[in-house]
Amino acid sequence: MDVISENRCFGGVQGVYRHPSHVTNCDMTFGLFLPEEAEQGPVPVLWYLSGLTCTHENAMVKAGAQAWAAEQGIALVFPDTSPRGEDVADDPNYDLGKGAGFYVNATQAPWAAHYQMWDYVAEELPRLITGNFNVDEDRQSITGHSMGGHGALTLAMGLPGRFRSVSAFAPICHPTAGDWGRKQLGAYLGQNEDMWVPHDATLMMRAEGLDIPLLVDTGSNDQFLDYLMPETLAEAVMTRRLPANLRLQKGYDHSYFFVSTFMEDHVAFHAEALYS
Amino acid sequence: MDVISENRCFGGVQGVYRHPSHVTNCDMTFGLFLPEEAEQGPVPVLWYLSGLTCTHENAMVKAGAQAWAAEQGIALVFPDTSPRGEDVADDPNYDLGKGAGFYVNATQAPWAAHYQMWDYVAEELPRLITGNFNVDEDRQSITGHSMGGHGALTLAMGLPGRFRSVSAFAPICHPTAGDWGRKQLGAYLGQNEDMWVPHDATLMMRAEGLDIPLLVDTGSNDQFLDYLMPETLAEAVMTRRLPANLRLQKGYDHSYFFVSTFMEDHVAFHAEALYS
């Protein structure tokens, strides 16, 4: 594993690291914020999954999360959103291929060779991080934005027992029914829609539910509301009578200005679960 | 004036605006954060001057200042660092020309036609902002990073009575003596070094002093310490017996991870002056 950069940040260290990935079959880069407390012993960790077009870097520099993670003594992981490299298949559109892995294991050509983002985020990267840094594998929570909110929700429901809490900023809630989802799930997983179900938060909520605390924020002026469909997840959560906090935030849009505004709430929400 | 974007952010609005500038003789773009309180009446304002290579955008998305400005009910202005446009003179090096205006009024060819950044930041942009937004011209403070810290310090000392407080992150403290300064001041202002004095914070501190509160943070691991020369400003401040808070922060470097870490302190410092 190569150290790309390490910067002192809020008393801790914001690092960027690169490693050969066996599951995506290419080099992968991720950001990791370790609070000062990690010098003394293992700290809990919050995963932040990013949205379309992002790398590991966007949220790391724009979401303002380190301030609150430092306050709570929590590590932050910022994975990339897709495999990278010249020999990795891509698509000219922003919403397929590089920067658009959708946190699934692709089964279809040409994607299957590298697009194994579920296994990367669910298995390989957690092992790498808990094996190399002072991070407590028994205290993990997860959040994400947009496509990353979709990833956070589906990982939390698909890996029961793994996370102590889950939240999302403007998540894609029902990708099997919308333009941010049908194209990509079809490309990566093929046209048998049964294979898509584990990657649709609304369908998973209806089928499996969730037994950890849930917080979701979406902006009432989000320019992509028709793609996100927060109403479908809300209906599924309420039908299940699950304790959850689903908020529509007046006037906010899809940007990092929205994410950063509510980051303090999300980190505090996860801290409560991680320290309970 | 054109609205480029307006995003809801921490209860207020992060806007980006473009306007024809008479002093720089080109279109200029700036960022303005208005807290929620600006809907009710004029709010105090903190100027943030950026460093080499930056536009209006870098600090606006990476410094995390809006969280604290919203908490304090303070507006933030993020000016650009130079004139822009195809007919604006430039230099292939990152530290001269576009992105490197050094907050001076150039007198030399080819720079003088557009590089009038002192007048832009000291006169034209304040008038534009106080004339068009709910910002209180009697309650202004100023900060900045690196070249922008130099700008904040020299503007504060060159315009007595204008600002209620001044701070800086890793400022260039003594540009007439270093590689971040001699080349640029020579190019913009000519080789008569008497003309450089108003644009050197250490020389101005020795000659004029300062009668408002001062806070300066610099990282002990800043990779540009030899260019910044914090020791020269510290010596000048202490020799004058001025009340000031000059801090060297252990382990921090020159990045926005450093700036964002101490932004809360700086905004709180300015708030105390702006609300007293």
TrEMBL record, chains A, B:
- Gene Ontology CC: cytosol
Reaction equations catalysed: S-formylglutathione + H2O = formate + glutathione + H(+)
For this protein, the record's InterPro entries field holds: AB_hydrolase_fold, Esterase-like, S-formylglutathione_hydrol
Q: Which domain of life is it from?
A: Bacteria
Q: Which SUPFAM superfamilies match?
A: alpha/beta-Hydrolases
The answer to whether the entry has keyword Kinase is no
GO BP of this protein:
formaldehyde catabolic process
Give the Gene Ontology MF terms in alphabetical order.
Answer: carboxylic ester hydrolase activity; S-formylglutathione hydrolase activity
Keywords for this protein? Hydrolase, Serine esterase
What's its top-level EC category? hydrolase
> What Enzyme Commission number(s) does the record list for this chain?
3.1.2.12
Active site: residue positions? S146 (charge relay system), D222 (charge relay system), H254 (charge relay system)
* Protein role: Serine hydrolase involved in the detoxification of formaldehyde.
Q: What is this protein called?
A: S-formylglutathione hydrolase
